[in-house]
Design goal:
CATH class: Alpha Beta
Number of helices: 18
Number of domains: 1
CATH superfamily: HypD, alpha/beta domain 2
CATH topology: Rossmann fold
Order of helices and strands: HHEHHEHHEHEHEHEHEHHEHEHEEHHHH
Low-confidence stretches: 369-377
Radius of gyration: 21 Å
Strand content: 15-25%
Largest sheet: 6 strands, mixed
Helix content: 40-55%
Distance between the termini: 42 Å
Structural class: alpha/beta
Shape: globular
């Protein structure tokens, strides 16, 4: 396939790896923010092509993985109710809450449906006026426009039996939390291309200046990532700290303005708890006051849920780049994709799932104990 193979050409990949090695004069630590990039790095062995002075850390860029345990328990609670049709993307069904998951609710007879768009859930509400239809709205800025559109359309059409359980998170505040940690050792970032397709990258420019850290907006194919690393290392070697756009075929500096306007209309910025990390100020989206009637947590009075993480799961340390998945004693034994202890093992973008699929028979040297911060940033 021409438009795929051109970003996976082995000879070009080696050329980039050799160029990175030639320019590298000292150790550098770079964090990729997106779970899709993590999977590409592990699947294609991109990190093994880099010189030993370049360390790649996996960041909290898996939206499923950082969805708080309490939100999953709220989803299970609502989905199990007899008059509810609960709609979700398929990657959320096996993510474990504290006691159960949505797949188990479905197995027990709950009406849990996989949809491919939040607007599909609005259609389910139109077709089932006697039922309460709830959509689980999670993700980064990438999925926020479609979720906002679903709520906007439901309000516009007066569909009162539709609501959303919202757990949106924002990337720049998480990056700042990492950079401001007293234990931080991240010296450069590969920013998530899909997020920047929606939001642009003006929000990253103050971070680059304030913390003197290069940020390279990067795509998801092997050559994208190698070129992103090349640009990041070049800045580090030259003492620069700017935002560069490797993913120019998709990303513009200003992003998608109509999508941003819709997000600002339907949502408002709120503090958000990140699973395994803790609360980060101004790092999430909640429904704005004009759309508060569509808040499923309030409609079903489930916003008082509190849950504790499984003590055997180190997903919080994995999400902060402090540990690699194979350093977890439960990895591949007590914790597998079919019986996960945490979200990083079951999500299609989770680091643990990537290592289980591609590297579970390898051993790794222990990571430094203070990669990003031994507790919440």
């Amino acid at each position: 396939m021409k438009y795929l193979d051109e970003y996976r050409d082995a000879a070009t990949a080696r050329t980039y790896a050799e160029a990175i090695a030639r320019m590298t004069t000292r150790p550098w630590t770079i964090m990729e923010v997106c779970g899709g990039q993590t999977h590409a790095i592990v699947r294609f062995g991109i990190d093994t092509l880099l010189p030993p002075q370049i360390s790649l850390l996996h960041g909290p860029g898996c939206p499923v993985c950082v969805t708080p345990l309490e939100v999953l328990d709220q989803a299970v609670d609502i989905a199990a109710r007899p008059n509810v049709i609960f709609c979700s993307f398929g990657d959320m069904l096996r993510v474990p809450g504290s006691q159960s998951d949505l797949f188990q609710v479905k197995s027990n007879g709950g009406d849990v449906r996989i949809v491919y768009s939040p607007v599909d859930a609005v259609q389910v509400a139109r077709e089932n006026p006697e039922k309460e239809v709830v959509f689980l709205a999670v993700g980064f800025e990438t999925t926020a426009p479609a979720n906002a559109m679903a709520v906007h359309r439901a309000k516009e059409e007066g569909i009162s039996n539709f609501s959303v359980l919202v757990s949106h998170v924002l990337v720049p505040p998480a990056m700042e939390a990492i950079l401001s940690s007293r234990h931080n050792r991240v010296q450069g970032f590969l920013a998530a291309g899909h997020v920047c397709t929606v939001m642009g990258y003006t929000e990253y420019e103050p971070l680059a200046r304030r913390y003197h850290v290069p940020i390279v907006v990067t795509g998801f194919e092997p050559l994208d990532i190698l070129q992103g690393v090349y640009l990041c290392v070049r800045q580090l070697e030259e003492g620069r700290a700017e935002v560069e756009n490797q993913y120019s075929r998709s990303v513009r500096r200003e992003g998608n303005q109509p999508a941003q306007e819709l997000i600002r209309e339907v949502f408002t910025v709120v503090p958000r708890k990140w699973r395994g990390i803790g609360e980060i100020p101004a790092s999430g989206l909640g429904l704005a006051p004009p759309y508060a009637a569509f808040d499923a947590a309030k409609r079903f009075q489930v916003d008082s849920h509190h849950a504790e993480e499984n003590p055997e799961c180190i997903s919080g340390l994995v999400l902060q780049g402090i540990k690699k998945p194979q350093e977890c004693p439960a990895f591949g034994t007590k914790c597998t994709p079919t019986h996960p202890l945490g979200a990083t093992m079951v999500s299609s973008e989770g680091a643990c799932a990537a290592y289980y699929k591609y590297r579970r028979h390898e051993t790794v040297e222990p990571s430094p104990s203070a990669a990003v911060g031994g507790a919440a940033p």
